[in-house]
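Q: Predict the bound structure with magnesium ion.
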Amino acid sequence: MKRYRMLINGEWVEAARGAFFPVYDPSTEEVTAEAPDAAAEDADRAVRAARAAFDTGPWPQTTAQERGRILLRLAERVRKGAAMLAEIESRNSGKPIVEAEFDVADVATCFEYYGGLATKVMGHVNPVPDNALSLSLREPVGVAAQIIPWNYPLLMAAWKLAPALAAGCTCVLKPAEQTPLTALELAQWFPEVGLPPGVVNIVTGFGETAGAPLVQHPDVNKVAFTGSAAVGKQIVKMAADTIKRVTLELGGKSPNIFFADADFEAAIDGALFGVFINQGEVCSAGSRILVEHPIYSRFVEAMTEKAKRIKLGPPLERETKMGPLVSREQYERVRSYQEIGKQEAKVASGGGRPAALARGYYVEPTIFYDAPNSARIAQEEIFGPVATVIPFADEKDAIRIANDTPYGLAAAVWSRDIFKAFRMVKALRAGVVWVNHMQPTFVEAPWGGYKQSGFGRELGPWGIEEYLETKQVHINLNEQPIGWY
Ligand code: ADP
Ligand code: MG
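A: Predicted complex:
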């Protein structure tokens, strides 16, 4: 069993209290590692390191070119270590190894993207009507506290760190307590890629004990959070006292909408992929599957048929398409929603745990149908492989049901009629809308939600904006006195 340490000011340290928490392999339910159980004093130490690195150096003295090169070297190092990272990620989170490999490739791409973008942050000359030079400068917002979830552990770390570093911020990253390992592995390479001590600090621990003190800390300027809506609401309240900039990527209950004229085979695949990828532990999961009346019964049947053939098993086996859920807590949560669903709707497939797998937090891919959109399984984020299929009558009905949720992260529409599909694109209240696909995500395009799915956008040029301040500079060119008094 490996005992990890966390990274504060370039040093690998234990928590001040000396406590550790266990890290599990969810496919065996066994403890495979330990990580420091950080508390307020550790969070404070990390923030002070990030503050000093930002205020006095070395980070403010580095040029955008240098920061960019550090990120590019980190990307290269991730590619070299990809097999190791993917294996640890898969073992710790339960996600199939093939998916973990895609994640790690995306991690490298994210560092590359922001490595390139670091030198493209530009200010403006403002056309003021005065004998003056008016500029707007873009400056880093300061120390960023970044709190991330367990579903894409390393990818979420990259989405947070890459734009912040490109912008010139310093960071304290808190991985989820379920999945702290790959962020710590990544951090081992910071010295060799030239990232100075204190610029990125990694604090491992639980939300209330290690996360909340970061959000409340007066020396933190910005909080970037990805996680549950419930915690997102607490973060906004905690950040209010010190007026921190906050960005939130919270969950969703995203509709995946199928019109009768969609390509049927592609639609069935898209419905299953949309909701069962990564065991359904996806903030943009297409967990409400809206199907037009004429194809509804055939759709449920075909989906069920295919869902029964999804290969569940140990995440490290290459043919596995679905691994265990991340933790006992999440397993119990999803199991309870399976029971709630049985009261609210009909079961097409699944509804329990797979009989063939005795150990591990496995649940069957589960499809409920004939649910009203008001059902709990249609309104609440489950964050597991549970799909709720809902019939609709026509385009208007589809829009009404699709938008009838407090969330607005993502949506997808399947149709061969481009007029209808594009009308839907405009009508859907969601930050990401796919047409004839669901889930592909690229670093070049904005990511984030409407409504209670949060605010702020990650990725692309939008992602770096969230880590930048704008400073107005007015340079008087008139050498005479103002002449007012
Ligand atoms: P889940 O319930 O699925 O674990 P959370 O939103 O609780 O999702 O967790 C996402 C991240 O937020 C994790 O890193 C977790 O430790 C952190 N977190 C949880 N509660 C708090 C809190 N009160 N303050 C700050 N961070 C928190
Ligand atoms: Mg939690």
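A: The chain has 16 helices and 23 strands.
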